[in-house]
Amino acid sequence: MEKLIRNITGLIAMVFILMSCEKEPVETVYEELGNRNGVFISCEGNFMYGNASLSFYDEDEKKVFNQVFYARNRAPLGDVAHSITSDGNKLYIVLNNSGKIVVADPLSLEYKGAVKGLVSPRYIHFISDTKAYISDLYGGRITVFDPSSLVVTGHIILADGKPLSAGHPTETFAEAQGKVFVTCWAYDEYVMIIDPVTDTVVDSVKVPYQPKRIVKDSNDKLWVLTDGNFNSLEGNPEKPALVRIDPATHTVEMILRWDIQKEYAGDLRTTPAGDSLYIMAGDIFKIPINARELPNEPWISSGSRRFFSMGVNSSSGEVYVADALDYMQNAMVYRHTSGGTVIDSFRVGVNPGDYYFNNH
Amino acid sequence: MRLIFLIILCFGWSTEVLSQGLRDTTIRIEEVHVVAKRLPGDIGLSRSRPDSMALVSSMTVQLSDLLAGYSPIFIKSYGNGSVATASFRGTAASHTQLIWNGINLNSPMRGSADLSLMPVIFIDDAWLLHGGSSMTETSGSLGGSIHLANKPDWSTGQNATLMVERASFNTKRYMAKIQSGKGRFRSVTRLMSDRSDNNIPFYNAGVLPTRKDTLRDADYLKWAGLQEFYIRMKDEKMVAARFWLQESDRNLPQLMSYEGASRNEFQNDRQFRAQVEYRDFSKTRQVHGSSGFNRTRMHYFREAPDIKYVNDDAVSIEQSWYNRFKISMNISERWSLSSAAEMNYHRVEAENRARNNGYSHDRIEGGITLHGQWQATGKLGLFLLNRSEYYDRKWVPLVPSGGFELQLPVRMPVMLKGNISENYHKPALNDLYWMPGGNPMLKPEKGFTSDLSLAMESNTKDVWKQEITLFYSLIDNWIIWQPSANGAWYWEADNVKKVYSRGIEYHFSSRMNLGGGILRANGNYAYTRTTNENAVPSVDQSRGKQLIYIPINSGNLHLSWSYKPWTIRGETSFTGRRYTQSSNEYTHFENVLNPFWVTGCSAERIFSFAHIDLTTRIKIHNLLDVNYQQILWRPMPGRHYSLTLGMQWKN
């Protein structure tokens, strides 16, 4: 009996002793952001981990605040924070695999509500104070909602005529000539054109395979980055491309094929003036909008880093580039001047995916 | 105080229930006391087995529940009835091999085995080979291997066990084991059905506003049948044939934070296994030959029904043919030698009809094992082993292992054991060929593993034994799936990490007379440090950090007291903190899975008649209603109950 008691006591004591050796948590303190000048960074987290987070970087004080949404609301954002934007009054964080958009106050981060019931939301484009579009990876439709009430008011169906398809998968938006252009990325090759007054599809432009990001330049032309079905499942890879579209005539004016096989053409942004483009494809490349060919040398070399996303401050022209490291830990973000010089680096959440610059 | 009250309530209530109406519907489940016996080939090996009573008292659950409660293995479960995989000594799920009567049940496609699809009633014996000790039976077990065996009861011709269990969340389980035959022939039929609405109430802290919630779309239905035939020939020779058919339909719930459009997501698994086996148990020569077939069809489906869009409609069919022949010979009193040869063939066809992609591939693998043992003195034994492996046209001639066993010169039986092994694990077919992300250039994971154990056993009338083991392993080319290094949208497999795993395992079991009854106690504790050692960039904070989802501390403890027809049990298990970021980031708001204790208790009464025993058992699971998560944002059940009625008939 004594041996039994000794064994049990020993086992329990061992567990408790070793438990007590475990380190204590570092407390994250909520701090109201107020009118700080800086950038919100939505961090995707890991798919099916539900560990998306929101960070804020104060550009003036060079100070970073992580987990700001959780700190304020004591609840997580959800699973895969795909993008972030604001209409000036509210902050909208798109939770792709939670099927919702979480809305928060940009100053206090207080939860203000959510747009729920979505299939696979990706990006938001604001039409007016009472109308905004939500693109959807699988939905085959654009969801229309009222930002003032967060009520879904309708859908724009984007039928593609394919069997077993819900319709065109929609991705990023750009507005030009009074029309909204939206890329259709996954296994698609169209840019759809929508009348934002009637919420109807008015036309489409066929582009190279898998158009992902669309931006507008200073000449009011649209640029689309297509990823070209990198490592095609069908074994017929198409090179990525940079495509220029005339929004007035809905025609493709130029296609620059990207002769890279090892890197993925992941993101496209413009300088604040709209006279140059930044392309993330392993490294960061910069190309003037009047160039006739793609650059060979990177503007920012990734080296051993794994560039995951980039953002450009439309006010200062500073370029933020995220290194995801091993994708399973808090990532590094490097802040560059418009000339490409690193001026700061800081750590945010896991897999930072999008940026919203809160310039005052 | 709350604990005491609940324990009293538990036993008090169960006593009352039993006394009122269940006396006529219970069975006696006969205690099986396994006496530890040196097996040929056991010198220097680290082998453990769940207490035989554990097998008996866990007959209505799955192997994952048995191992979580009675072994040092950490079980990673996605929820009640959901996929559950094993982590042995801090390694990945694919590093634990599941062996059923010599057949490897790990998926050749994924590398791992789903332990939630292994009914305990289909098992007559189970044991674990820790670390490099597993090389005596199989390869690729960087953590260890789990062995399951079936054997008929030759002491009786006909017997039958029937069990019915009703549990919370509208869970209904039916189990049957029927043996028939006479003379040298036995037939054993086992049937299992397990279904549950699984509508677990939980507190949802993953949405705003936080609220009480109920898990939806987590219902499941599992059924299985196993038919065995045995013929015992003269000179202790036996031929067996087994046929196992199983199906599982599981709805897959969403994460707590999901508030999107309705999703229809399910997984259907269907397995058919067949095996013929030959055994010769002669005193000087043991022969074991088996040939088996395993076919697994898995269907994963996900759609958004509102828009009739199918995201995934993936069907995979795995077919494996296993062949193994082993002969062990006692050459002299001091020398024994065993040799085993294996040749297996796998074919995998995987297709996602919604995405129009997939792959089909096959693999031939084989191996030869030579295992020599030398009892150098009465107290010192040594072994040396080598495996030569062949797979995918690659030949690995030398995978050596060696060890010793020393009886220490003290009064009680104390044994010092140790072994060191080179070990390796070949990539699974998904790692190599999955589209997209499979990497045909993957190298096998390889490394060294070693352990040193001190085992003690009483030589008094009270039975108690305990064993403490220090283990160490260093594994290079650790394969993980991570987002594509080139930034593409998919994940890909790569040899990323060098993993250093070390720790302590402790096990004890006791049995003694107390108050006119028998008191049994057993427990396990594991301290496991498993760290990544080759993070390269200076800003990468994962170097030297615990791998995600591996608890540093874990343990379990069981107490039971049997008095006449009554048995009362108490059990608790502890799982330490688990990190979900490779850098082990740990703030109040970040994604750490907190440590938890899960405690349960049960009361059981046996009513014995001439040829029939009736048993009734009532159990409270998660007695303290602990709110915990095994996987991030996957709720686990709080306090819940089960009532089991059983009948055992023996001619």
Protein model, in words:
- The complex is a heterodimer of chains A (360) and B (651).
- Chain A is mainly β.
- Chain A has a domain of 148 residues: YVTN repeat-like/Quinoprotein amine dehydrogenase (Methylamine Dehydrogenase, Chain H, 7 Propeller).
- Chain A contains 2 helices and 27 strands.
- The longest helix of chain A has 19 residues.
- Chain A is globular.
- Chain A starts with a helix and ends with a strand.
- By secondary structure, chain B is mostly beta strands.
- Helices cover 6% and strands 56% of the residues of chain B.
- Chain B has 4 helices and 33 strands.
- In chain B, the strands form 5 sheets. Chain B has a 22-stranded antiparallel barrel. In chain B, strands 1-6-7-4-5 form a 5-stranded mixed beta sheet, with no helix packed on it. In chain B, strands 2-3 form a two-stranded antiparallel sheet.
- The longest helix of chain B has 20 residues.
- The chains are: A mainly beta (360), B mainly beta (651).
- Chains A and B meet through helix 1 and helix 2 of A and strand 17, strand 24, strand 25, strand 26 and strand 27 of B.
**Structural class by secondary-structure content of chain B:** mainly beta
Please compute the radius of gyration of chain B using only Cα atoms.
Answer: 25 Å
CATH evolutionary superfamily of chain B: TonB-dependent receptor, beta-barrel domain
Q: How many individual helices of chain A?
A: 2
Chain-averaged pLDDT of chain A: 90
